[in-house]
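User: Can you predict the 3D structure for this chain?
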Amino acid sequence: MTIVQGPLSGEAVAIIDTDGACPGKTAAVPPSHGGSQLFIYHPKAVDDFRLKVLTPFFVSQATKQGKTIEGPAFYNALKSLQAKQLAAVLELLPPANALPVWAVTIKTQAGDPALTAPVNTRAKPQNLANPAYAPKSGNPPPPKASGDAAAAAPKPAHLST
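Assistant: Here is the predicted structure, written as structure tokens:
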């Protein structure tokens, strides 16, 4: 979990899903990069954490205090409560309640290389999830993200070397 310091200034809500050759693994998606922020919700990652960390922790704590919590019942109650909390956030919490919500699926195949850093996001990519923001025909395509787009951009005279 990443706690972003400062005001909530996300530009969209992204609901991340994973599909493919990496069952039990979840993609790490940074909520802030290059000056932009997204509100990230990753249901599979949250559910995995809820099932493998939270439920055993609370069952263990109850046992230490001489009480009993049934793991499956606690897990299902927690899942239901967190679904209500997410719905309330998306409906009531500014600015999340006024932002576009994008469903993003990350598909993997056996042999895919692991990404260890975020993809260069300085150049504005096409937004295929929201056609209203897609480039109009006749407009040049966005720059390709090969290397660092900022390094290739011309520098103001006072910064040239």
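The beta strands are 13-20, 32-33, 36-37, 39-41, 101-108. The CA atoms of residues 134 and 158 lie 35 Å apart.
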